[in-house]
């Protein structure tokens, strides 16, 4: 090929052009669902060996992405071998399945460090660390959704009075009544697979998630010998059960015209914003946040961040070990935290366990046209939907006891010097009393309705449940 003057000029120009700076990852926040577990309907849910494997695999993926020194997405300045407790925070509700999932996940994020597996004492004695240098990362308990695997529905464990009332409103809506009627024959047809556990009046859309969860767990763990009608759960039937369960659960977790229904998603949004902001204000001292929670919280958060506009899949129940992550990134030169004008946020989600060459997919927040959203805009938009303080939570939930007692006292004092009969949240004491009574009644009815049987894990050994699975406080579903 002849070398022309024109081609020579092009080559010279390309060599003179400045190189584009590589993107730097400044920090990240990971949120994950637990791994495979026993069925909610049996109570005392436990993480299975399969579930342990799933969350460990997910944690290992994020180790390779954010921790490993040879990764082009390594978080800048993060310790790549021995965990630095100041750089990472981890939390989960005080619930065995979620806490154990978090522990398994973190084992993947920071695997045993063999080179730190021994220590020589002053007297010359060498002490070997257990488990080949197993690295301990503290998992803090969160205040929301305590003991959630043995609670009824999301709002029942979040203790937010107005959120409970909001979710209950779904059961009086026309959309719910329409679904209940239109799916009656479909659920009745499932009786042969369900009648060892569910009574006839429980087999309906009212128990859409509980039924899906029961069959899903049974299909995963039981052979045809233990679950004779296992082969009846075809791919098409499974998809229909999941779609109906998702429809029900999304409506319980989020309602655009009644934001308090998404209270757990709002709390999570506040925690994410706080963690990422800490990364910036601490000049990168805090680098990685990890939290485990329920699929109900996923749904609430997705709704608040307008992710269903990016994909209808965000209205569905996510699979075990699903994760989403928000990355703080920049193209600014140098090291350390640049001006916030040069910082952007990327959101990614992966449904289910990350295996093989899988990677999370990038989705656009708040209906944006770009994959990246500037930090300032992300902060402004998130603040509009996030819960950022206990007082704000108490105000939105209408609670006046527990941690909200001091807020209620302050509101009462304010009321005596201002407009009478109203709290700081704009709700009269009379209305608050009515709501409180409704919630109390819901809890009582829920306790009467809830059933937990001691026994095995096998799907065909379950005797029929009590007369009603649904409490007035919401579905007896596992929101995980």
From TrEMBL:
Residues 406-425 have a biased composition (Low complexity). Belongs to the histidine acid phosphatase family. It comes from the Eukaryota. Pfam families: His_Phos_2. This is Histidine phosphatase superfamily clade-2. It comes from Penicillium atrosanguineum. Residues 1-22 form the signal peptide. InterPro entries: His_Pase_clade-2, His_PPase_superfam, Histidine_acid_phosphatase. The chain crosses the membrane at residues 430-454. Keywords: Membrane, Signal, Transmembrane, Transmembrane helix. Residues 404-425 are annotated as: Disordered. One of its GO terms (molecular function) is phosphatase activity.
């Amino acid at each position: 090929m002849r070398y022309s003057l024109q081609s020579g000029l092009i080559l010279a120009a390309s060599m003179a052009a400045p190189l584009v700076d590589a993107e730097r990852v400044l920090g990240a926040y990971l949120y994950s669902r637990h791994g495979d577990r026993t069925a909610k309907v049996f109570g005392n849910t436990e993480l299975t060996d399969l579930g342990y494997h799933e969350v460990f695999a997910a944690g290992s993926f994020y180790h390779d992405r954010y921790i490993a020194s040879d990764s082009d997405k390594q978080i800048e300045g993060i310790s790549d071998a021995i965990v630095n407790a100041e750089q990472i925070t981890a939390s989960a509700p005080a619930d065995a399945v979620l806490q154990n999932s978090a522990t398994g996940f973190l084992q993947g994020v920071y695997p045993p460090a063999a080179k730190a597996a021994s220590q020589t004492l002053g007297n010359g004695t060498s002490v070997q660390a257990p488990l080949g240098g197993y690295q301990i990362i503290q998992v803090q308990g969160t205040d929301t959704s305590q003991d959630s695997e043995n609670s009824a529905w999301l709002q029942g464990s979040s203790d937010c009075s107005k959120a409970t009332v909001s979710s209950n409103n779904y059961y009086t809506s026309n959309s719910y009544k329409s679904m209940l009627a239109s799916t009656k024959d479909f659920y009745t047809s499932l009786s042969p697979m369900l009648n060892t556990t569910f009574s006839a009046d429980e087999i309906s859309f009212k128990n859409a998630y509980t039924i899906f969860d029961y069959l899903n767990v049974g299909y995963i763990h039981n052979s045809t010998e233990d679950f004779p009608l296992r082969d009846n759960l075809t791919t098409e039937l499974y998809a229909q059960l999941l779609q109906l369960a998702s429809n029900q659960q999304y409506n319980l977790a989020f309602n655009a015209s009644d934001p308090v229904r998404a209270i757990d998603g709002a709390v999570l949004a506040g925690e994410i914003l706080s963690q990422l902001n800490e990364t910036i204000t601490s000049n990168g001292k805090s680098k990685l946040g990890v939290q485990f929670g329920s699929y109900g919280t996923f749904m609430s958060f997705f709704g608040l961040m307008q992710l269903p506009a990016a994909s209808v899949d965000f209205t569905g129940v996510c699979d075990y070990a699903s994760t989403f992550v928000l990355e703080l990134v920049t193209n600014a030169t140098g090291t350390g935290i640049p001006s916030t004008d040069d910082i952007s946020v990327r959101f990614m989600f992966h449904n289910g366990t990350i295996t093989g060459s899988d990677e999370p997919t990038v989705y656009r927040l708040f209906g944006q046209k770009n994959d990246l959203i500037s930090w300032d805009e992300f902060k402004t938009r998130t603040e509009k939907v996030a819960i950022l303080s206990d007082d704000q939570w108490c105000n939105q939930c209408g609670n006046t006891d527990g941690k909200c007692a001091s807020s209620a006292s302050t509101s009462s004092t304010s009321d005596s010097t201002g407009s009478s009969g109203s709290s700081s949240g704009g709700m009269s004491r009379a209305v608050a009393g009515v709501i409180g009574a409704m919630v109390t009644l819901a809890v009582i009815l829920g306790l009467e309705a809830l059933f937990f049987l001691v026994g095995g894990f096998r799907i065909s050994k379950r005797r029929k449940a009590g007369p009603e699975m649904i409490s007035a406080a919401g579905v007896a579903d596992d929101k995980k």
